[in-house]
Fold each of these.
Amino acid sequence: MGWINIAETEQQVRLASSATLTKSDLDVLCDPTQWMTDALINFGVKVYGDEPLGELHDNVRWIDPATVRLGKEGNAEAFDASLGRDGVLGAPRNLITAPQLPGDVNVILFPVNKGDTHWSLLAFFKAGRSFVHYDSLHPANNDAAQALIDKLHAKGYLPEDVVFESPVEVARQEDGYNCGVYVVSFARMIMNGGARPGGDALATVTSDTCDLLRLQMLQSLQPLVSYELPMPEHRPLPSSETDYTPALVTTDEAEQLEDQAEVRQVAVKRLKECLAKEAPVKLNTTAQCEKAEVSNLIVVLRSDDIPVLNLKTAKVTFAIGSQRFTRTAAQAGEEWVTALKLQIKSGITVDVTAAVTPDLEFVANQKQGAQDIGTGEEKTLEFTFTPKPPRRMFAKFVFSDPPKPGRDEEVQPTKRPFPADFEVELVFDEGQGNAMAAIRADGQIVSADDEQLGVQIPHAVKKIWPRFPGISDDRVLQWETDSEADAPTTLVDPTAEEEVDQTRSGPVRKGRWGPTPDPDWVLPDQHKNGTEEFHQQVDVSELAETIGSEEAPLEYLLENMPQTWHMNGHPIEHVVVLMLENRGFDHFMGYLYEGSDKPSNSYPASPKGKHAGLRTFEGMEGLNPEFPYEYEWETRGPRSRSNPLGPKVKQTVRGRLRTRKGARACNMPRTNPHEDFIHIFQQMYGNDVVANTADMKTAAKRDPLVKSGGEYKRPAMTGYAHNFVDGIRHHRGYKNSVFISEDMISEILDIYLPDQLPVMSGLARHYAVSDLWFCSVPSQTNTNRAYWVAGSAAGEVTNAYYPAYPKVDKVKELHADQMPEGIADKMLHRRNLFTVCDENEIEWKYYWSSHWPPAPIKGNYFKAMFPQYGGKSFNKNVPLIAQFYTDAENGTLPPVSYIEPIWGGGAHWDAGMMRAVGNEFHPVQDMTNGEFFVKKVYEAIANSPKWDTTLLVITFDENGGTYDHFPPWAAVPSGREPEPGAEKPLQFGFEFDCYGVRVPTLLIGKHIKPGTIFRSNTDVPLDHTSIIATILKWAQIPKSEWRLGDRVDGAPTFDEVLDGAGDDDEDRLASAPGMLAFDAARKSRIEGTKPLTSEDTIRLRYVGNKWTTPPPDALDYIGGPTTSMNSWYPICTQVKGDALEFKITSESGEVKAGDKVVIEVTSGPATGYSLAVPTKGAKTVYLYKGSNPSRWVIWLINDRVEGVPIHAGDEVILFAECYLPEKLKGGGSYNDPYQRLTVETGSATTRYVKWRAGEWDIWKLEG
């Protein structure tokens, strides 16, 4: 303990250091019925103990009581000087959202006082960003704690409505004076643990433990009390059960005396001197006589095995008749002594009960005796307490070698001892004590106290967990895996500055390595308790004697990476994240649930904040919004001789549209809508608020339109039709003279149905989808994908913010997302998720699918966005998508996988070679391509040997101008964007304080309950930064090490959505990529019927788009044939009797979904011919007879699950095999895959059978 100054006045305390006490402070400490002073509380937390904690310990900051009181109760100047700008907290910052707390601490402790009558402790924890109030008389100090929070809010350190939690485990104070000692106890517990204590630890703080702590504080000051500052006014002996007395003989004195007998003589002499100054106790019996000679009864207590374990405290109760007098014994060397002073007129018998602590360390911690004593006599009664046999723990610490590829799973990896002399600290019961040890070359521990094998463990200890002081953030352990098992481990020089090689063996870092989960401690058979659920703590509460042995020590196994982390208690080894493109939630999934079809599970069960008032599913059901639009159309007036074209006449075209339930084609919308920042705001707020989108380019013009009082106004979300008119003109190059039809404008309001997107809808229904996940920025690709990876966008709002790739004629019409070029711009080198993974040696891969922009530029999107990964050394981290499928199949995916799809884009559907074909759902493309890509990714994971421990996340970067009804909420900026006046300031002055439009986000894994709708479990909604936060939380990386900004720090995580047992996983694994499981009508229709086989005949009737209103009535059959240029061609007929009959032939004989089939004519002159697609040139289906027929892939319209039997009456889609992606040269970048059988449109007398992409083209199999 540090030296304690004794000040003469209270004023000196306020002006001196925290290690200053006054005489009055000592008076208070000697009289336990007095409340603790500010200085004593400060002393108890910061100075008391063998190793003082100070004001900052283990990243916990203690603020002294006087400072808190001055900040809470003082004026503005006092606040700034104490807590505020010039004090502890520094310049105002929002503690809830700031990436770091003042001083980069994890916890701030505020002792709180109410009217000088009661103390409590208010703690702010960075983990959870919450206040916890520890009040021993809860709720006595609630208003005082709230007053401090309100003051911090008023001064700009907290937002509104911050509340605190009061743990129920806090034991209620049983006296009226120990509240200050409770504060000291809680503060020391938190500072020693470095984090929020658990309920079991809190429950250990009681009035009795506070009595003990107060006594120990007094004993630590004993030399000052007894010698340096003698104070006769202090009563040296207690007068009640809770009074304390300093030691009668100090440890230093005891060492100078010859033996314990001499120590006792000195102690008894001093005890008598104290007794002489004390009045005799008052008896209420006839034995009392105030004139009688004084009698003294002295009680001595000792342990009979002093070297092993000494007493800590001792109390003696003297019983005389019905009266009880309790004394706390004072230490006298190796004994404890107290006494009772009496005045009695005749002899009496005094019953004596002596109790010692720690109680669990003794065979019996309480003994009784009786002593006869007469008038004027001095008697001594002695008690000897026997400690339990010492308990010793034998443990061995070993590493596990990393697994070797191809090794038999039954072969256990080699175990190696920790390096010799490595230090280990065994922590007792949540930090209530510890023992230090060193590790021998064989891994066994040697006590630092007695240098013997094993460590002595007090009997009171229930649980033990290890901590390794030798591991720091900048030290890496490395060992050779080719040496003999159990050979001594040699460390690589930890000071060597060399680049971290992720392929090396044996990396171990603080917080990133841990014990095996099942169990951590490997126990000898005699110590197993049946559960083995020890994890990092080993339970020794039932082990009374030796724990382990030299021959069979407890084994602590440290596994090498990859280690299994958990989400909500479920082991998860891999997180795979696929980000798709440009679809709003309602546009894509607005009718996922409706009517009696409801989600079967909602997370969280008790939503918070604005989440609490929402519908179970926030989709399109019950909504019928109206969307006004208007535009100027330039026509020609009547012609005249002087003006043969007619004069130009401007007209205003106005209209109002509503959403369409069911997209009219699978390429809706056929024109690329505006997706950039200024247009998103018009889509949200409408033309009446944002009449000129150019106004959105400056905050000065934007904020008055979309904000009120500094807050965003609630947008109507009805500007989509109006803005789409401009999008059509821009992307199709239409001049004002071109009339834009209502039918074309209404494409932006088509809402897809679940049966139209069976893969995505089926996965959402079988697993989980969020209906309240906003994209991170109300803009386009680059800025949102930057948030997906880095949690910020370097101030970028539009794709063209950075210098773009040079445009060339071949790609300029693609309207490609412009990307930065070159690495000179330092803002491009953003700290991101993968940076944190690298720092913590967590393997990651970013799988990419195609160049963007495509040839001739051949850019790599990710490496352009983050040029620090442009070097060849990162090629292993950025492989092509083919590697993903290989890794999934082999079970070798890294812990973190991001997937980038094939990029597509273009101005409109009819742009030809100027439209790149992707598989990421970006308008303007056939949605089928994206559906099959998602199916392939899902099935790669579902069929992987690591399916049980893999979580797949599927999301979209932004809505891309497509519709959603739900207004985005205000957002917390990242805090990492450029400052005003920077070389590249915030683009458009946008402060990133608003989320973008909702997008679909799916969670897929074994432990996701079917039919789940999930949202945030906090007031903050989910966005792309939730992916980063969830991954880092899952990887057990402390938030202080993230340093990715406020948005990521405050992002809610979705790990708790994994709350299913996974019992029904096998049933849904195969059926998930489709909606057939929910199709009750088909199930009823086919009941009792047989599936189609190659022997059955059917007619093909064209349905086309079954979701039109009204539905089609005149449907075509395939009939004919007709002859042209020596070939037979099937043609359309609406007469059933003229229809051709076919058989559908598959390899198995049964017709099943996903089969490649031949469709062969079985009637008329064309019998034996089949429907065929020309290899090139023509676009008309003909009839072929030969050895190499064309094949068609048959699918039910609402399902993409292979092997489902097809029945007569089913509605199907028939894809031409030669147009599958794997059949197309170059993967189909400029050719639409999944071309399907259709009929020629128009009113020609003879209409042929064709094939095409982009339309529904449904066929019914009529028997």
Amino acid sequence: MSTTPQGSTSNQDEITLVTTTTATTLTVSEQEHTVINEDSDNRRHEAFDLPKSKKFKSSTTLISNGSDLTIMSSNSNSTNVVEAMEHTNGEMNYNGNSENNNSQATLQTTTPYQMAGVLQHQTSTSSTKTPEIDEGLYSRQLYVMGKEAMHQLASAHVLISGMRGLGVEIAKNIILGGAKSVIVHDCGSVTYKDLSSQYYFNESNIGQNRAEVANKHLAELNSYVNVTCSSATIDDVFLQKNKVNVFVLTDANLDDQLKIGDYCHQHGIKFINANTKGLFGQIFCDFGLNFQVLDTNGENPLTQIVTEISHDEAGVVFMSTDTRHGFEDGSYVTFHGVKGMTEVNEQEFKISVPSPYTFTIGDTRNFGVYEGGGNVIEVKKPEIANFKPFSESLKDPEMLVCDFAKMSMPANLHLAFQAISNFQKQYNTLPKPWDDGDADKFYEVVEKLNSENREKVLTDELNKHWIKLFSKTCTGDLCPMQAVIGGIAAQEAMKAVTGKFMPIRQFFYFDAIECLPENVFQPSNEITTESYMGPKLPTKTSRYYSQEIVFGEDFQEKLGKSKYFVVGSGAIGCEMLKNFAMMGVGCLKEGHVYVTDMDSIEKSNLNRQFLFRSWDIGKMKSTVAAEAVKAMNPNMHVRAYVDGVFPETEHIYDDHFFERLDGVVNALDNVKARQYIDRRCVYYQKPLVDSGTLGTKASVQVVVPFLTESYSSTNDPPDPSIPMCTLRNFPNLIEHTIEWARDNFAGLFTIPSQQAEEFMRGPKEFAERTAKNHSEYDKTEIIENVKRILSGERPKTFADCIKWSRLLFEQQFHNTIAQLLFNFPRDHITNKGERFWSGNKRCPHVLKFDVNNKLHLDFIVAASNLLAHMYHIPQTNDYKLIAEEVAKLHIPEFKPKAGVTIHENDDQVRAELDRQKNTSAMRKNGQSGNDIEVEQLLNRLPKYDDVLDIKIRPHEFEKDDDTNFHMDYITATANLRAENYEIQRADRSKIKRIAGNIIPAIATATAMVTGLVCLEVYKFIQNHQKIESYRNGFVNLALPFFGFSEPVPPKRQKYLDKDFTLWDRFEVKGDMTLEEFIEYFKREHKLVPNMISAGMSVIYSPHFMRQTSKTQDMKRKISELFETVTRTKIPAHVRSLTLDMLCDDLEGNDVEDVPYIKYTFR
């Protein structure tokens, strides 16, 4: 092999991080598991002093620093590891006045980055000034939330109490999201138990205050958020002085949950209670009475093209019959751009929907008669949601179901989460891990709760098996579970302050019991927990202690020795690597995590890709991400690549690389790359988890060898493309004009200059490539492009650029439209007797340039600067100077020409393209690419010596650079063309999203989906063999909706009497002659090959071979035949070929489908 992942290659920029640190460990007896996991401080409730009366109680000292607030935080004395272990609690230590925390000192946590954020977001919510939003940073989130919601979020003050794994996950997501201020609160100290999921803690922090340690790292995440910490007692003075809008409580006992929940409800503070216990999670939301939900589903308002409105009592609105309109009965709509019946424009109508293609708005007889045009747009109406306080909801819960295969699970977990505190009060301890005696006692507590103080039991389906599993694992802390619950809870906090999206009403429970061994999580009617003795519990403390008490030490060893490939280190990749570091994936000597990404870090990444900081901009994502997770867990063996994964890099990610992997995790943003990785995983028979997000939507698909279908087994329907004719001549939506503007940009400023640049690098080579690879029509266009770019009429000064831009305006927005109207006048009637300008065809009008029209001048400024940049001419965006210059220009009058062909529909466009192809084929006459044609092309191109000194700089479209005029040009062009066709304009943000093909994204959905992925990785590590053990998932946090299901098994096929799936193949080892190969299949598989191919190349086909050739080929090796027919040398790193075969059985009957062949010849 020429390259393996252990070595460096010339085209590979990588870092290898394999250093190992040895942490201090302590021996833990079985009895001490109780000490590590239970709360030994009975005064933790004193951290919350919230009287129900409105009389404020001053129990905490706050220091006011202007309008900004610095909180005094207790300073924990250093303790040794043993003392820290003895003071560990299963829930948070909320005592602000413990012996180790009796001295108060001012903790100044505002960094320069935070101060910049304070200034940007304003320092007081009482200010009427709207917070400014950094669109460069928040661009992807803005497409999810919208500007109004972002302004609301940027004014929010959030308190998060509890800085263990779940709390920090919620804090991280809210800070990335851009709240005004976040206070992180915790009275407890860091223990070993925290290290399995709190990625900002390490062994050196043992004994330090959790909030203080976490705050140092959280403050770096977003310079616009004022992040402070506190370990003070929380009372009403604290909440009022900090202007807390949202109180997020984590890891608290039930008494504190009740106390805080009721206080928040009474005082109008939005309350979120979130907890994880092992493989179980809980979220509760109370946003008070009359909470207004401004957007219930997160979807863009529906928009349709109006084709007719009846002038009658019903007022029937007709739209394009191509697709269903999607409106619902009772929806509200408004109209824009309707002609004739102008009374409907900008008015709201409540509609009735009699069919998928029409709706009614009521009596239109007093309106004008519809003449044409117009769009109809959905109007989203707010909904009111009322929430009960926590104490009331606890007795009468409303619960959201997330897994319909376990319908009774929410009710069981509702009781189990309450039972923890009751159990602890009754037995002065938490349930010990995997202890049958404690599990029995815990079940008795749950049984009592099910009927206690109720007229009827909460659930008739109390599941003893589930409850006992909860008891045996509830003291564990798992990073993937906290990623899931933390992502969802953070999104709920954002909903609370923005009204954007529908909140959870009111309890949400989630479990992942399928992660346990397959003989454990089965339903109780198949197996009982008593038949499983439990895992081997840890005998010494380590950072993985809280994970080991759920899965055991042996499992942890497997995780540490595993080798995983993370493909992509963007938003999903960063979260995945963080989870892997906490889980301990690849953290033993034999283990490894490989990560690759071709991209470098940009500013817009910082809002979601939390491993990166502003000082990392420009660096490679994979290398920075690897360094960051290495800092989180120094024992992690992580190697970063900067090479993409595709056929051209198979010498890097070769057989040796893939064969040693235990699994692959996709963190990609396009289907083509996913399908390629999927094919590689099928070929190497490796498990794969694919995930993706689109705004608040997220999905997970698990691919298990021989058990499930692959990612590529099913395909989403392709996105509908815009017809060519619509783009060219008949746009009717702003999306059409945006795509036209994007193509126009490339056709003017990118493609021609790139072609000219190629010509300048080597005229003869350019002519040879053009002659060989292009049709006659394309050759003509390429030659004209090069001549235009390098001609003597090219601009020499900026004034020349202004003149060119003014002529371009005239050509695009006046002359072309005038010619179209000349061919098809406004009153044109088709040969069918119908109005030409009707239905989806909007009649345009010409634009007359107005130097005082800002949009017109925007176009001139942008186009002039783009052209100047291309020719290395000094640029300016001085509007006054440009306006004065353009006003001097004389523009010749345009006269339409007769005989100009303008296609009316796509059929005519396709016919013209076919004609051009046929003409090109005739002209080639077998001489394409020969010396004569090359010479002819060179004669048509400029003389090289005449253009030798010209310097060209093509524009590569970059949407996120606001200084390069790219988006300025596309925005102006799209809106000017929209004005031509009386289409409603779009703002720059929308145009940027569509032109740049930007995928809306938010950190909450990203964090959540990676948690779901890592739960599936737990199953891979244990080699789960039942399809019902795995879960595909689809989540929409906006609704909210959670859907989980078993994966789909692979399609089964049959040859002779044998079944096979996509995972099966024929394995042939050793390089055989063709004759040996054929005999092998006859002997071993009762099949007679009659055609063998590799890709598009046929290696063997007796029906089309001369006898002499056939006889000779029979003695040649398959590998030799492959090189001959493909005319390529097999690279040294390739050890096997993929062959396909058509064959008969031994009786000569055709066998239709057989598996492919993995032919290993080296």
